[in-house]
Amino acid sequence: MFNIVLLEPEIPANTGNIGRTCVVTGSRLHLVGPLGFSLNDDHLRRAGLGYWHSLDVVTYASWDDFLERCGLVEGDARLHLLTKKARRTYAESTYRDGDFLVFGKESTGIDEGLLVRMPQRCERIPMLPDAASITDAGEWAARSGKARDHVALAQDVCGNFVDPDDYRISALNLSNAAAIVLYEALRQTGFEGM
Questions:
Q1: Residues 112, 113, 118, CA angle at the centre, nearest 5°?
Q2: Do 174 and 103 meet the contact criterion of CB atoms below 8 Å apart?
Q3: How many alpha carbons fall within 13 Å on the CB side of residue 134?
Q4: Which of 16, 28, 42, 137 has a CA 20 to 30 Å removed from the CA of 96?
């Protein structure tokens, strides 16, 4: 069984879609709070359709609560932190039954302090740079107020994070990203039971 971990998810429809993907793949969904919505949210249930009652889902108050209850420590080889700031791609990673695929909240991704503590666990899905994919990339960058003094970039000593000049605003939808990486993990393990 694979584990999808959503850190502080904000959009109920994304969580519902990911929940549906977890049901049809036999994966467990871990929701690490604080959540940006109620688990009784109509949008969440609508996206999960009739699958939600079949979902193996566990909620946690915080990252530390998640680690403790799952018997993990930071840096554990079973953790795969998906971030657009990683140098290594998800396709270069090896996945094993029981691994945890960790995704950050829609607005900001995984907290950079966490990425800095576990750079060897960071992976990304390749995407075109903003300049090649967004016609008004410069305006988006200016509106976002993204500064170059990110914790991860300032403390990068291991080469796992992308060049600061290649910082990206654009990214895949969270539910699409989760499905892409989960299906690679399933492929690597032979789609057992499917």
A1: 95
A2: yes
A3: 15
A4: 16
Judge residue 40's burial from the number of C-beta atoms within 10 Å of its C-beta, 0-12 exposed, 13-18 middle, 19 or more buried.
exposed
Q: Which has the closest alpha carbon to 101: 85, 88, 111, 90?
A: 90
Residue bearing the bigger pLDDT, 176 or 128:
176
Determine the Cα–Cα distance for residues 14 and 29; give it in Å rounded to an integer.
12
Burial 152-191 (b: 16+ CB within 10 A, else e): bbeebeeebbbebeebbeebeebbebbbebbebbbeeeee
Angle CA(173)–CA(157)–CA(121) in degrees, nearest 5? 45
Beta strands 28-32 and 57-60 are parallel
Rounded-to-integer distance, Cα 142 and Cα 114, Å = 26
Per-residue confidence band for 156, with pLDDT thresholds at 50, 70 and 90: very low
Which pLDDT belongs to residue 166?
A: 53
Separation of alpha carbons 157 and 119, rounded Å: 9
Q: Element (H or E) spanning 4, and its range?
A: strand 3-7
